[in-house]
UniProtKB/TrEMBL annotation:
Cited PANTHER family: DIFFERENTIALLY EXPRESSED IN FDCP 6 HOMOLOG, SWAP-70 RECOMBINASE
Residues covered by the PH domain: 102-140
Pfam families per the UniProt record, alphabetical: PH (PF00169)
InterPro entries: PH-like_dom_sf, PH_domain
UniProt source species: Nothobranchius korthausae
Signal peptide (UniProt feature, chain positions): none
Gene3D superfamilies cross-referenced by the UniProt entry: Pleckstrin-homology domain (PH domain)/Phosphotyrosine-binding domain (PTB)
The protein's name: PH domain-containing protein
Gene: OLA.20856
Example of a GO cellular component annotation carried by this entry: nucleus
Amino acid sequence: LSERDCFKLFCLFNLLSEDRYPLVMITEEVEYLLKKLCTAMSQEWDEKPLEDLISQDPTVLEEGMSVWSFLEHMRTGRLLRVTSTEALSLALNEVFLEMYHNVLKRGYMWKKGHVRRNWTERWFVLKPSSMAYYASEDLK
């Protein structure tokens, strides 16, 4: 995993973690996040790696999983079977935008100009309270 991917996983972990210190995430939340990542990668969810981890370490079920063990298990591939790191990175970016930045939909659309009435292709980002458009996917 790249540093950027680890940071996104860390942010998602903080978002889903319990409100106590040290930060821990219960197994249901871990499963939810892994299912979201599998869906974004167009893979079928396989709960066996998570069940194996819980059976090897019963404290995970009782106390939850710490952020450092979660990142380590993600890095080594013990929680999720990934075919390529690029696919995981793209899926992680999609899940991060959806959950952390609350992006509902994004993509290209045609927009009619105000001054000159011509149609131009714009990159749109739809959030629950707003819709923004940009000249390109770089959000510029």
